[in-house]
Amino acid sequence: MSGLTLQNIVKQFGAFRAVDNVDLTVPHGAFVCLLGPSGCGKTTLLRMIAGLDLPTAGRVTLNGNDITRTPTHQRELGMVFQSLALFPHLTVGENIAYPLRIRGRSKEEQAKRVEELLAMIYLPGYADRAVSKLSGGQRQRVAIARALAISPKLFLLDEPLSALDAKLREAMQVELRQLHQRLGITTIAVTHDQREAMTMADTVVVMNGGQIRQAASPTEIYRRPADSFVADFIGQTNLVEARREGGAVNILGQPVTALSLSAGVERATLSIRPEDVRLGPPKAGALTGEVTFVRDLGGVIETFVNVGGQQFIAVSTPRERPDVAVGQKVGIALTDKDCVVLEQ
Ligand SMILES: Nc1ncnc2c1ncn2[C@@H]1O[C@H](COP(=O)(O)OP(=O)(O)OP(=O)(O)O)[C@@H](O)[C@H]1O
Questions:
Q1: Which Pfam families does this chain map to (predicted)?
Q2: Which of 37, 114, 292, 316 is deepest in the core (most CB within 10 A)?
Q3: Cα(303)–Cα(310) distance, rounded to whole angstroms?
Q4: What is the pTM of this model?
Q5: Candidates 11, 13, 17, 49: which one to mutate for ligand 1, based on the most atoms within 8 Å of Cβ?
């Protein structure tokens, strides 16, 4: 099978299980982001894919070959890790050519490839520059070019953009995605930044406690989170418990007439995205709460509403700005369409 497959991967550090039975298939040419909070095991998983760590159990296959125990240098990988910095004493061109030089490629081949790669990262004519004269973003592009010099079978990135400031980081995310679209190299990137993952990846793999909680497209992860961890970790959400009481579905002790639960379900956790919370005048059958805070962030307006002791957050565009003020009583009319039913 072409692409990368992880089967029942376990990594144990003494009694501590950093990666716990991970199964994942990355189709050839896909861009996958491993996303999760600090310590969830993403770097450990990437290091096993790279061959920098051996799994305690499980199997790694690349394009049908078992590479679980293959040394890193025989895996034909391109890697951009935070710790793998550019060589400061070499020029840009020498840095990019380095993987070709140590593989004994001719000077002509090295020069040709350096030229191609510099054009690809939008730095033509930079071969003779000193690395120390580059900006942070340019350095990162050179590190990417160096990793791609050998046309790797697999491209691995560990927090590749974390040293850059927010604006440059966003631009580089788009650049990396576009580069991937042009080259089609199977790519796995580790990040703790969900915007970064959603910008770049075909598949976002959300991890927690060494396990995969959900692996799906950015849209699916956001619109149909598998559980409350994913719902809460990706973007903002309102998590509430719904209970069947009498004939109606109640939230925080208030009946919400337009909501239903599947037959036989007595209680469930609902995830309601802030953009699906519409505020209006209080009315029967809707939740009633009190506005506690309004935050105008320019492009979006966030309104915080206290409903029975729990804070709801509603987000709207400036055009749809709700006409509400702090202290005002408001209604939140919810329908099934606004909610994702999680644990039942
Ligand atoms: N060599 C090691 N020995 C012992 N424990 C380790 C070792 N490497 C990692 N761990 C532990 O394994 C867990 C997962 O670490 P890992 O670096 O994979 O997390 P991560 O998700 O990449 O986090 P971060 O975003 O902070 O880098 C952590 O609790 C970490 O302390």
A1: ABC_tran (PF00005), TOBE_2 (PF08402)
A2: 114
A3: 14
A4: 0.89
A5: 13
Reduced to 3 states (helix: H, G, I; strand: E, B; else coil), residue 112 is helix
Domains of the chain, each with CATH number or no CATH: 3-232 (3.40.50.300), 236-341 (2.40.50.100)
Contact 261, 277 (CB under 8 A): no
Name the helix (H) or strand (E) containing 330: strand 329-332
Please give the Cα distance from 280 to 228 (Å, whole number): 27
Q: Which residue puts its alpha carbon closest to atom 19 of ligand 1?
A: 39
Ligand 1 geometric centre to CA of 20 (Å): 13
CA dihedral 202, 208, 210, 212 (to 10 degrees): -40
**Which spans in the chain are helix H?**
42-50, 92-101, 107-120, 136-148, 166-183, 194-200, 218-223, 228-233
Lookup: tokens for 220: 């699916």
Name the closest-CA residue to atom 16, ligand 1.
Answer: 41
3-class secondary structure, 204:
strand
ipTM: 0.96
pLDDT in tens, 83-121: 668 999 999 999 999 999 999 999 999 999 999 999 988
Residues 187-238: pLDDT tens digits? Answer: 999 999 999 999 999 999 999 999 999 999 999 999 999 999 999 999 999 9
